[in-house]
Amino acid sequence: MCSGRHLYAQADIADDVVLVTGATSGIGEACAWRFAEAGCKLVLTGRRAARLDSLKASIEAKYEGVSVTCVTMDVTDLERVAALPGALLPLEVDILVNNAGLALGVAPAEANSMAHMQQMMATNVTALIAMSAAFLPGMKARGKGHLINIGSIAGHEAYAGAAALTLALTLALTLALTLALTLALTLALTLAQAAAATVRARPRLRPSPPRRGTTWWSRYTTHGL
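Now predict its structure.
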């Protein structure tokens, strides 16, 4: 805003515990760096252990006092997801960033791979539900928390060759809206939905401003402050 004022009061999230799924590259990795800069304690998940370990070493070398816990896992492993809050104790997650997702295939609707469809639904929709279900009870019990879902413009705009993807991401967006309504009366609990188009997501400390039209954001605030 030109006046320099903020639409929402800024929060100090230093020492908050932030869990980022799909943190080994792209938007997830960039989120890890930004939360580290803010002084948060990080829990990073991903399928590639070597990438997680490398990111942990780089962040802890750059930011003294920032701790990084790495969890090598696939978010489609629902039993592992359900057990994650207990496995992380005594850490309690304050901010959950549901970032893990994927896009497979560009076939026309009549030639969609059912295997690709099932994998995209499992990763982009079912895992999102499972992660939220695992960590929201603790946030509600503590009376505070933030849930951030990273989606895609494909959840808003369909395009040729992406029937399975746009379906999965539309469902993910609908879930975010449903969560916003469900959590609307929960004190100090917020949900944000980000839908990205073409994003340059490198872990810069001072990233260049995005080019026009590269990112579309929507925010659904659900706090009772």
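Residues 182 and 222 are 9 Å apart (CA to CA).
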